[in-house]
UniProtKB/TrEMBL annotation:
Requisite cofactors: heme
Protein name: unspecific monooxygenase
Positions contributing to heme binding: C448
Database matches in SUPFAM superfamilies: Cytochrome P450
UniProt keyword Signal, yes or no: no
GO molecular function, one term: iron ion binding
Membrane topology: Peripheral membrane protein
Organism, as annotated: Arctia plantaginis
Location, primary (coarse class): endoplasmic reticulum
Superkingdom assignment: Eukaryota
Pfam families noted in UniProt: p450
Amino acid sequence: MFETILQLLLATIVLCLSFFLLFIRRDYGYWKKQGIPYEKPGLFFGNLGGLMRISMWDLFNDLRKKHKTDYVGIFLGWRPALVINSKELAKKILVKDFDSFQNRYSYPGDQDDPLGALNLFTVKSPMWSTMRHELAPMFTSKRLKGVTQLMNINSEELVRRIQTDHIDNNKPVDMKELFSMYTSDTVAYTVFGLRVSVLKELTSPLWHITRHMVKWTFWRGFEFTMIFFAPAIAEIMRLKFFSAPATEYVKKLFWGVVEDRQKTGKTDDNDLVNMLLNLKKNLRLPADSDTELADNLMLAQAALFILGSVETSSTTMSFCLHELAYQPDKQEKLYTEISKALEDKGKTVLDFNDLLELHYLTACIKETLRKYPPVPFLDRVCNKTYKLTDKVTIEKDTPVYTNVIAIHYNEEYYPEPYEWRPERFAITTDNDNYDFTFLPFGEGPRFCIGKRYGLMQVRTAIAHIVMNFRIEPVDDYSVPVDPYSVILAPKTGGRVKFIPR
């Protein structure tokens, strides 16, 4: 009797496994049936099996190297997705036919993770377009001019911190953490109107949570991998874009600032809190919405601005200084441009308009963003059956990823793409996408709303650093990247040697 039961059990297991494998095999033949080149998937995980051992950046870089075609099929688990490698097709997805690709491919965790689901990066249409319209005035030239004054003050503190810690006391440099302190101080004022200095006092009400947000552990890397590539699993597992401690801290800080303003009657028209309070008044929500939804919409934008402002700017600054350390001739050219501007204008500090006139500084930053784009892909999901080319039709609900690395490293657009050459961007403006060959901020209606803010934050700090220090290399030229980070980041934070001028 026992033997018969065991045989039936084994037969059932084999039968179920066979059906599962047939199901997988059927789905894994999706791109082959359409005659579309594809990356051979592994069992169960599709083309995601290597993630957490390699970074998202490495995944898309490997796809670029293996497939020189305009597009390539991949599998997210057993779900087919299409990766776009050409600027012409990227333009169709991101701009020309935006109506078919309005949303990002991430899970709608409204209940379990409202701050993750309702921020401007992830929120779905039509709410997205209304929110973007309301938030756009945050980044006008007038507002950025005021914020640049604070960026200059924080950059001076950054110079003092470098002198004290890394020259006088000879502490090892972790550029990513150092620059995260600088960006944290700036975002504290921009979002909450708080004038604090973790660079000066090593404490601020925002620094603890900022460090928590940008510390990429295995678990945080896994959460973001699932959110971006397997949202159905993320929803089942209730994974979060922002961790519970980060969410609670943002709530506490945000409502503390609001309560203080209500008591004192003071407001600051220049910060994000004031703009979000206006957003709550003006946003037209569904009739059955409750107050909590409006509150979560405000909190979600504050949390996103903190994460985006701190993480992307700090990694860009780290990679830029790394390249300048290895290219002293270009470093000297940049120093000459900055010092000449100060001399010609009779100033000790360059303001917003002055910094915009430093074309070689802008070129250095843009070439860094080309070679080291913080996010290697631009994700969208097709909302209706769409004909991409005469040979390719994208079905509804198919994820589509524009491979930013494939475009940035295309030799047709950028000869010798592995070389860091700021001269590629000698004549440029902040709004130039070079005919869709330069996409670190995305493009189209959903391009990064904080682009000008981020560029100015990086400009200000690098100008101060290069003016006060020579930068020399410490590590090997090749920089290992953090496999757990959703944003391209040096594994060890990045190190250089600062020499006072």
